[in-house]
Design brief:
Layout (H helix, E strand, L loop, with lengths): L2 H16 L3 H8 L3 E10 L5 E12 L5 E8 L4 H17 L5 E8 L7 H15 L8 E5 L5 H15 L23 H16 L8 E5 L3 H12 L3 E7 L2 E4 L6 H11 L9 E3 L1 H5 L5 E4 L18 E3 L8 H10 L2 E3 L1 H4 L2 H15 L5 H26 L3 H20 L3
Parallel strand pairs: 3-4, 3-5, 6-7, 6-10, 10-11, 11-12
Antiparallel strand pairs: 1-2, 2-4, 7-8, 8-9
This protein binds nicotinamide-adenine-dinucleotide (NAD).
Nicotinamide-adenine-dinucleotide binds next to helix 7 and strand 7.
Length: 411
């Protein structure tokens, strides 16, 4: 299954729980618009290279499209479409006034100089400029894009528009209207919903063992929050491999090691493990925070964790879902667990529109409220429809999107 087929499978399940009419599901099966562009970039050696990029707007019934831009050598149109559809669901579940969008450029950014990266980012914005705007489509960072790239893109947009428009993009540096707390928002959002899930089972973080796959922005910050709250993070990994210490890893030291050496694998006093081994460790909590499709029907029955916090988008395939739910695993689905990032992006957009900026505590407190409310709504749907957490989160999201489409007279 490609990622878009996975989305379609999830959509069908949610739609059948809600008994949505076929013509309504038809609208949601297709993105509203997919823009495909070629971006010629002058390289440092004087030659010109052409890169391919996409921006997909899946559904905008609830508001402007919203979602990140990914730079990756394996990005495909179907992947960008799937990610935009997941953004529609995520934004609706969190009750944000947004539709779903996502962008991608097929490039290995590690092979570009800083100047080439800037010209590519400005070139992409030149090509999608007409379709982007604070009231139209609002991008943000994703894998291998960052605040610096967002700043170049915003600057390019403002030059073309002939006016200031900080709300055109989120995840910006603070000095250009970024929000406090955005850097760790995805991780702390996941941390908040995990806290609620533990509370539901009358327990807390104390002594819980944790394995985290992917030690980038999302993975390293959730590691830090869990460590600071008395959980025992026993394993972490990145693209070079993983490390394991059943006695617990000192996460602040591991973060320092990753910053210094570019990886966690050389951290002393821990056993080297593979990324595959990490997923099946005997732990209480598993946090996939790297890529899609890592838990499949091949390894799902060996997963021992009682809780899975999906900080990555789409880490569990539909077949693996069945196996895990049958075992009683509590999955905090991606559209809930990693929604902290887009929620603080929404706060950034609101602050840009007001021209008035909140302090960090205010941002985190508002995020906690939003995440906890979405968690409660998901649990209510689990109970009232007698469905699993993923299907429940889809029903909450779909109900809102369909209500907006009906109010507009689209369906
Ligand atoms: P990142 O680029 O900061 O970190 C990714 C990490 O994954 C790196 O440590 C990298 O070494 C590791 N990695 C790459 N390939 C791997 C592999 N095959 N096995 C194990 N580890 C591997 O990215 P991020 O922003 O932390 O995003 C991680 C995931 O979280 C993605 O799926 C992304 O879509 C999702 N996500 C991120 C945000 C956000 O705000 N950062 C928001 C929502 C969802």
């Amino acid at each position: 299954m490609n990622p878009y087929e996975i989305f379609l499978n999830q959509l069908e399940k949610g739609a059948s729980v809600l008994e949505l009419p076929e013509h309504v599901v038809d609208v949601l099966r297709e993105p509203e618009r997919v823009i495909e562009v070629s971006i010629p970039v002058r390289m440092d050696d004087g030659t010109v290279k052409v890169f391919r990029g996409w921006r997909s707007e899946h559904n905008t019934a609830l508001g402007p499209a919203k979602g990140g831009i990914r730079y990756h050598w394996e990005v495909t149109k179907e992947e960008v479409m799937a990610l935009s559809a997941w953004m529609s669901m995520k934004n609706a579940l969190l009750d944000l006034p947004y539709g779903g969008g996502k962008g991608g450029v097929k490039v290995n950014p590690k092979q570009l100089s800083e100047g080439e990266l800037e010209r590519l980012s400005r070139g992409f914005m030149d090509k999608i400029y007409k379709y982007i705007g604070p009231d139209q489509d609002v991008p943000a960072p994703d894998v291998y894009t960052n605040p610096k790239i967002m700043a170049w893109m915003m600057d390019e947009y403002e030059k073309l528009a002939g006016r200031k428009a900080p709300g055109v993009i989120t995840g910006k540096p603070l000095i250009l209207g970024g929000s406090r707390g955005r850097e760790y928002a995805t991780a702390i959002g996941g941390f908040f919903v995990l806290r609620e899930a533990l509370k539901l089972n009358s327990t807390n973080f104390e002594g819980k063992t944790v394995a985290i796959q992917g030690f980038g922005n999302a993975g390293s910050f959730i590691g830090k929050f869990l460590y600071e709250n008395s959980a025992k993070v026993v394993a972490v990994s990145d693209s070079k491999g993983g490390i394991y210490n059943p006695g617990g890893l000192p996460i602040p030291e591991v973060i320092k090691c990753k910053k210094k050496t570019g990886s966690v694998v050389d951290f002393p006093g821990a056993e080297r493990i593979t990324n595959e081994e990490l997923l099946t460790l005997d732990v209480d909590i598993l946090v996939p925070a790297a890529l899609e499709g890592v838990i499949t029907e091949k390894n799902a029955d060996q997963v021992k964790a009682k809780y899975i916090v999906e900080l990555a988008n789409g880490p569990v395939t539909p077949k693996a879902d069945e196996i895990l739910y049958n075992k009683g695993t509590f999955i905090l689905p991606d559209i809930l667990a990693n929604a902290g990032g887009v929620t603080v992006s929404y706060f950034e957009w609101v602050q840009n529109r007001m021209g008035y900026y909140w302090d960090e505590e205010e941002v985190v407190e508002k995020l906690d409220k939003k995440m906890s409310k979405a968690f409660r709504e998901m649990c209510e749907a689990m109970e009232s429809y007698e469905v699993n957490s993923r299907e429940a989160s889809y029903t909450v999201a779909l109900r809102r999107i369909v209500e907006a489409m009906e109010a507009r007279g689209v369906v």
